[in-house]
């Protein structure tokens, strides 16, 4: 929702050359331009799913239990590998912000990452699927991740998993000891 209780409509059209977030009324015009420029539109234009939920946490903090036991057992959530690192793959690129002059480079970098994460939209029941990225490392990039999420995918919901630091450290110690 957009805060007013109403749901927002969001559709992203991706051309292999550029990443263009569009309003729903601009999509038909943009798709038509893609078709005019490239007759082979099956290879040139796709609609992709960026994660709809991001899980942040720490090592031995409970993110695995949350994602694999609870989230991935839901029929409308696409099971994936746990730590995709979707939003921090470009950590070095994002370190000093994204200057306007490098926007195309950013779009191409993000597009490559999106193409690796491409997935289906509709579950077997016909419901919209959700795509979860559970990467505990995001918690350590907490000064940057909210900005990246807002710029890249403002619809993403974040789940933060915290654990008593002493219990977490002891659990990590036991894991290393084994």
From TrEMBL:
InterPro entries: IL-1_CS, NST/OST, P-loop_NTPase, Sulfotransferase_dom. Transmembrane segments: none annotated. One of its GO terms (cellular component) is extracellular space. This is Sulfotransferase domain-containing protein. GO terms for molecular function: sulfotransferase activity. Residues 53-175 form the Sulfotransferase domain. The active site is at residue 60. 3'-phosphoadenylyl sulfate binds at residues 163, 171. It comes from Amphora coffeiformis.
């Amino acid at each position: 929702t957009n805060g007013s209780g109403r749901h927002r409509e969001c559709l992203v059209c991706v051309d292999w050359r550029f990443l263009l977030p569009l309003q729903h009324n601009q999509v038909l015009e943009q798709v038509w331009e893609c078709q005019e420029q490239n007759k082979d539109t099956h290879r040139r234009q796709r609609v992709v799913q960026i994660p709809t939920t991001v899980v942040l946490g720490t090592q031995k903090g409970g993110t695995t239990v949350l994602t694999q036991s609870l989230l991935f057992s839901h029929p409308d959530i696409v099971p994936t590998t746990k730590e995709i690192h979707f939003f921090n793959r470009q950590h070095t690129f994002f370190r000093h912000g994204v200057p306007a002059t490098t926007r195309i480079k950013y779009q191409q970098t993000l597009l490559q990452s999106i193409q690796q994460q491409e997935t289906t939209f509709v579950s077997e029941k016909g419901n919209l699927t959700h795509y979860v990225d559970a990467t505990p490392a995001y918690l350590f990039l907490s000064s940057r991740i909210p900005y990246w999420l807002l710029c890249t995918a403002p619809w993403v919901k974040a789940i933060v998993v915290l654990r008593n630091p002493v219990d977490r450290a002891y659990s990590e110690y036991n894991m290393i000891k084994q």
